[in-house]
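Morning - adenosine-5'-triphosphate inputs below, output right after.
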Amino acid sequence: MPGAIYAEGLVKTFGDVKALDGVDLDVPEGTVLGLLGPNGAGKTTAVRCLTTLLRPDSGKAVVAGVDVLKHPDAVRRRVGLSGQFAAVDEYLTGRENLQMVGRLYQMRAKAAKERAVELLDQFHLTDAADRTAKTYSGGMRRRLDLAAALVVSPPVMFMDEPTTGLDPRNRQQLWGVIKQLVSGGTTLLLTTQYLEEADHLAHDICVVDQGRVIARGTADELKARTGGERVEVVVHEREHMATAAGVLRGFGKGETTVEEHTRKLTVPVTGGAKLLAEVIRELDGRGIEIDDIGLRRPTLDDVFLSLTGHVAEVKEEESDEAADVKGRKAKKESAK
Ligand SMILES: Nc1ncnc2c1ncn2[C@@H]1O[C@H](COP(=O)(O)OP(=O)(O)OP(=O)(O)O)[C@@H](O)[C@H]1O
Ligand SMILES: [Mg+2]
C-alpha cells in the first residue's frame, strides 16, 4: 500500500530546464521524509506538484489517499503547507493572521482565538502579536508562516525549508514543534539544505540533484555508504603535512583528504579509539606537532559531497584523491 505521500515518475519542465526528471517518493504514514538537495535541485517544484500548486507534465501522485491530479480540491483539504517564502498578510497583525486561518478552516471564533494565543506563545511571537506583520523581521515572518500552517493539524504536512533564516534558538524550538507534530501521527515532507536538520528530524532522506533522486535511505544508511568513522588531524606546521599524510595513509581504509589552508587531514578508518591512540603515537614518534585530533563519524555533509560533489564528473584517469579535493572545492564554491 502506498504511503501518505506517494509519487511515481514525476516530471516537470520549465522551458528547457527539467526541474523534475522522474521523481519517485513513498512516505509511510506518521513518518518524516527529508528532501535534501542543493539550490535548484527541484525540491520546491516537487512540493508544489504534491500540494496541487503546480501540475506535473507527467507522473502520478497520491497524497493522503487522494489522487493529486484527479482531485486537487480534496487534496488541499487534507494537507498543510508552509512554503519557502512566507505567505502572511502584511497588513494584518500576527494574531489576526492566525485567527483568519482558523476561521478559513471553519473554526469557531473562540477556538480560533485560543489557538492563535497558543501558537503565538509557541513561536515566541506574543510580544509582537498585535503589530502588523509588515513590521516583522524575516525570522518573525517565517515563524508566523509556520504557525499559520499549524493552526489546524492536517494529516499530511509539507514544509519547504522551514528553518531557513531562523536563528539557532528558533531552529531548535521548531525542531521540537515538528517532533511533537509527528508524534501525534502527522506525515511530513520537509525540504532542507541543512544536512544536520535532516539527520535530526527525518526517518528517511531522499537526496535530489538536478530533478532526480540520487540516493535514499536513513541518515545512518547514507553515512554507511561513505564508509565508517574518520580520523581528523590538524597539524601545527604546514611542512609536516606530507609526512602526516603518509602516516594516515598507513592506517587508513580509504583516501586521505588534505586541506592545505586549514592544515587538516582526514582519513576513513576502522578500529576506533584504539587506532586513534596508535595514530597519535606514530605522529608523535615522528615529531609532528598536532593542534587537534579526533575520531568522527561521517556527517551527512560527507555523504552529500560524495554524492553530489561532482565526483561523478571526474574523468577515469584522475585519482579518487583529486576527486575528493575537487568535491571540496565545489562545496566551498557553493557555500559562497
Ligand atoms: N516557475 C518557474 N519557471 C522557470 N523555471 C523554474 C520555475 N520554477 C523552478 N524553476 C527551475 O527549476 C529548477 C528547480 O527549481 P526549484 O525551485 O524546485 O529548486 P529548489 O530545489 O527548491 O532550490 P532552492 O534550494 O534554491 O529553493 C531550477 O532550475 C529553477 O530555476
Ligand atoms: Mg526551493
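Note: The chain has two domains: 5-216, 228-296.

O.
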